[in-house]
UniProtKB/TrEMBL annotation:
UniProt-recorded name of the protein: Inner membrane protein
Keyword annotations of the record: Membrane, Transmembrane, Transmembrane helix
Family matches, as PANTHER family: INNER MEMBRANE PROTEIN YBCI-RELATED
Organism: Streptomonospora litoralis
InterPro entries in the record: YdjM-like
Keyword Membrane among record annotations: yes
Entry's transmembrane regions: 64-83, 103-123, 160-190, 211-228
Length: 237
C-alpha cells in the first residue's frame, strides 16, 4: 500500500484495539488509555506503520528527514536484503517494538524525541503540507508536529505502552502489504515465502484509491465518535 494508506491503517488499528486494551494488563504493562493516550497511540502507530518502508529510497518515511532518513534507508536496504524483505518480517516488528520499549525504560526525554519523530513521519504520510512547495511543507509539518507533541506532553500522556504501539504499527503495515499482490516474507530470514502474494489488489490502484483509503478514513470518523466523550468535550450552555 501507499504511505497515506499505511498511516491511516495505523490510526484505525490503534483506535480499534483501545477497547480491548484499556483497563487491562498485557505483557506486564498496564493500559490506562484516556483521550490523550488514544490520540498519541494513534499517531505513534501511524508513524510506526511507515517504518518497514525505510528500506525503499522513494518511500514516504525515507523522504521525511532528508539526508538522515535517506542514509538510514540505504543502510536498512543493505542489511535487510532490499525492499520488502527483512523489514517486512515478524522479526523486524519484534525488534522495533523491543528497542522502542527499551528506549522508554531508559529515558523519558528520549521517548519524547522519538514520539516527535514518529509524529512527523505520520503527518508526512497523511499528507500534511504542500508537495509543490517542499520548504513550506516541511515547516508546516515541523510546527504541527511540535505543537501536537507538546500538547500531548502537557496533558501528561504516559508512553509506557509505546513499544507495543510501534510493533503493532509494523504488523499493520504487513497486513496492508499482504492485501496487495506482492505479499510479504513474514518468516524472514527463516523463509522468503511471501504471504499474500498474487492474491491482493495493485498498490495505488483503483481498489486502494477508491475503496481502501476512503474506508479507512470513514473508520477513523466512526471510531472517534465511539471512543471520545464528545458531550463532555463540547462547551456547556
Amino acid at each position: 500500500m501507499m504511505g497515506h494508506a499505511h498511516a491511516l491503517s495505523g490510526i484505525v488499528g490503534w483506535m480499534a484495539v483501545v477497547p480491548l486494551l484499556d483497563g487491562h494488563e498485557f505483557f506486564g504493562l498496564r493500559f490506562d488509555l484516556g483521550p490523550g493516550e488514544i490520540v498519541a497511540g494513534s499517531l505513534v502507530c501511524a508513524g510506526a506503520a511507515l517504518i518497514p518502508d525505510l528500506d525503499a529510497k522513494s518511500s514516504t518515511i525515507t523522504q521525511t528527514y532528508g539526508v538522515v532518513t535517506r542514509g538510514l534507508s540505504a543502510a536498512f536496504n543493505w542489511i535487510f536484503g532490499g525492499h520488502r524483505n527483512g523489514t517486512h518480517s515478524l522479526l523486524f516488528a519484534l525488534l522495533m517494538g523491543g528497542l522502542t520499549q527499551a528506549l522508554a525504560l531508559w529515558s523519558e526525554l528520549a521517548v519524547q524525541i522519538f514520539v516527535f519523530l514518529l509524529l512527523g513521519i505520520a503527518f508526512n504520510g497523511l499528507g500534511l503540507g504542500n508537495d509543490k512547495n517542499r520548504l513550506a511543507s516541511e515547516v508546516i509539518n515541523a510546527m504541527g508536529t511540535a505543537a501536537v507533541t507538546l500538547a500531548l506532553y502537557a496533558s501528561g500522556v504516559n508512553y509506557a505502552w509505546i513499544g507495543v504501539a510501534v510493533a503493532f504499527g509494523c504488523l499493520l503495515h504487513f497486513a496492508g502489504d499482504m492485501a496487495t499482490e506482492l505479499g510479504v516474507p513474514l518468516l524472514w530470514p527463516a523463509s522468503k515465502y511471501r504471504f499474500g502474494r498474487n492474491i491482493g489488489f495493485t498498490t495505488d490502484g483503483k481498489v486502494e484509491r477508491n475503496i481502501v483509503t476512503p474506508g479507512l478514513t470513514i473508520a477513523i470518523l466512526l471510531l472517534s465518535f465511539y471512543l471520545f466523550p464528545w458531550p463532555e468535550l463540547l462547551p456547556q450552555a
